Amino acid sequence: MRRHTDCSCPHRSSSICGARTLDPPANQRDAMNHLLPLALIALILVAPARAATGPYPAHVFTRNVDQGAVLLVEKVSKRAWLLDLGDYPPQIRRQFDGLMLGENGGRKYRVGDRKTPEGIYHVLRYLPDEMLDARYGSGAFPLDYPNPIDRFKGRNGSGIWLHGRDDNDKDKQATLGCVAFANDDIRTLRDVVHPDTPVVITDRLDFVDAATYEEERKRLLGVLDRFLEAWEKGHFDQLEHMLDPAFHGVGGLNKRSWLARKRNIFHHQRQRIIEAEQVVALRESHEQVVFDFVQSYCASTINSRGRKRLFFHKSNDRLRLLSEQYFPLPTTSIPRERVEHFVRGWLAAWNQRDLDTYVARYARSFRDSKGRDLAAFKAFKQRVFARRPRQHITIDDLQIQRLGPNRFRASFIQHYRSRELNDTGYKTLLISACGQRLWIEQETWKPL
To answer: Using omega within 30 degrees of 0 as the cis cutoff, is the peptide bond preceding 117 cis?
Structure first.
């Protein structure tokens, strides 16, 4: 039998599993629902949930996510919604009614207060019923409460689970802080909820129309993009502005030490790429926003990939980064087909005289054979494009050689034709990659 430190359920009722329809949250329910004919109510109770077309829960926002799930728990209505991240916007797959929560209302602050926490958490693992006391029903999902924001706010306690019920105990009406589902609902969840599945618990959920949802998505993802851009480009004043004074990073670094380390790394590695893929932005109603994504970090001597979580909280009416977590993942090799596609795109931009797209294919640290840096190289190409409006470039015999997991040499015969100049030569591009981005570090050309 496993011990459960902060949540056992000595007072529980015989609440039955409620409707599986997509009713709105408590603040949007129509009182007329209580007047539905009994026959219609019976039909609703057995009807499966269908994908919602709106309104949308303004608590989960994604970018480039093709699978996964999020569980939303609304305390005031004692309901939960399972969201499928495989669609955009995330769609409601299932609704769960008749939850049991902590017997005392409000946000959890300390061990033994018999309250259910409010915040953004992640499932740690699944515990099957054979490992548990009968009071936990058909299984349990321990959560990682308290999260870094809870700890900063002085909230403590442990053992907050999502679990089932003892159907033989008809007197229990509440928990000591856990979220208790009907046993059939736990069986449903165990097929789709896995370690690291996010769980958002809040007093009252916000369901909004499509336009409001898109506006909030743009706002929140903009916060993440500004942070990553400032980090990648070394805009340390902006980084310092976005970090909370109490910020603690990976390894326990405080704000001052974290910024000093980033400055030192930037001094030695000015060319770097930071990519965020499979982004999930999670918002709790009052104070917490968490960004969960796969981060690729690439520089001259570093090529790393891992799952990153950034914990923002509201401070003086704006979001500040309070903490971060990082879990390393195996690096993935870029397929040669992507490198060939990159080279073809570079060639197309050159032929179309699309200067910005063409130059964007080069590393910021790039220098051409004449020693021109990227800005001077761009100015040179701009003059060439103006002088030769009918240039046409083709390549033959493209060969791509892998030099490392994300480093390649592309070689080919290049034919340049214009009214002013015709030449043929052997060109080599040294190409690096990070996440979804590729760039040219070096190029050479020899006449044939």
So the answer is: no
- Encode pLDDT of 196-230 as tens digits: 999 999 999 999 999 999 999 999 999 999 999 99
Burial of 11 (0-12, 13-18, 19+ CB in 10 A): middle
Q: Count of H helices and E strands in the chain?
A: 9, 21
pLDDT digits (tens, 9 = 90+) for 310-351: 999 998 889 999 999 999 998 777 888 999 999 999 999 999
Q: In DSSP terms, which residues pair with 277 in a beta bridge?
A: 294
3-state secondary structure of 61: strand
Angle, alpha carbons 366-369-375 (nearest 5°): 40
Q: What is the CB neighbour count within 10 angstroms for residue 352?
A: 11
The domains of the chain, with CATH numbers, are 26-208 (2.40.440.10), 210-328 (3.10.450.50), 336-447 (3.10.450.50)
Q: How many C-beta atoms surround the C-beta of residue 448 within 10 A? A: 10
Strand bridging mode 179-180 / 161-163: parallel
Report strand pairing: 407-417 vs 288-298: unpaired
Task: Beginning with the edge strand found earlier in the chain, give each strand of the sheet holding 273-283 in spatial order.
Answer: 60-63, 273-283, 288-298, 303-315, 318-328, 243-248
The one-character DSSP state at 221 is: H
User: Which residue do the tokens 């359920």 mark?
Assistant: 9
Taking the C-alpha atoms of residue 414 and residue 347, their distance in angstroms, rounded to an integer, is 10
* Phi, psi values for residue 295, rounded to 5°: -105, 130
Q: What is the pTM of this model?
A: 0.76
Residue among 16, 34, 7, 246 nearest 108 (CA): 7
